[in-house]
Write a structure and sequence with these properties.
Layout lengths: L3 E5 L3 H10 L3 E8 L4 E7 L5 E7 L16 E4 L3 H10 L3 E8 L5 E6 L5 E6 L1
Parallel strand pairs: 1-4, 5-8
Antiparallel strand pairs: 2-3, 3-4, 6-7, 7-8
């Protein structure tokens, strides 16, 4: 069974590099030039797939104003060093490191298309 999360991207190569910094790796790449569609499927420790999609018709990137409501969560070993690395590469901080109820700490950054990504330290 193929279970994945698909998100649109403004710049698929920038998004690919962002998620690689978070430990994702490319599983497969697809392109349908006539349909102006490009897809990069990425896995994370072989447990799930993230599908990055670039399509000429999908350029509306209006996400929720509260990143907690719509986001991708990624478990990291050291939230400070991961956050620092992402910010050095241009990621925008959406919510600073905060103590969590169900997890030790979390923070939110925006991926290159502005999609919220939660960094979770358990």
């Amino acid at each position: 069974m193929n279970v994945h999360i698909a998100i649109p991207t403004k710049d698929i190569q920038a998004s690919k590099a962002f998620y690689e910094r978070l430990g994702f790796s490319v599983a497969k790449e697809y392109a349908k030039p006539g349909d102006q569609l490009q897809i990069i499927r990425m896995s994370h420790q072989g447990q799930y797939i993230l599908e990055l999609m670039a399509h000429a018709a999908a350029q509306d990137f209006s996400y929720a104003h509260r990143p907690e409501l719509l986001h991708i969560g990624v478990i990291v070993e050291n939230i400070e060093s991961t956050l620092e690395q992402l910010q050095r590469s241009g990621a925008k901080l959406l919510k600073p490191i905060t103590a969590g109820a169900a997890v030790k700490r979390f923070a939110f950054v925006a991926d290159p298309s502005g999609y919220p990504v939660e960094l979770v330290e358990e």
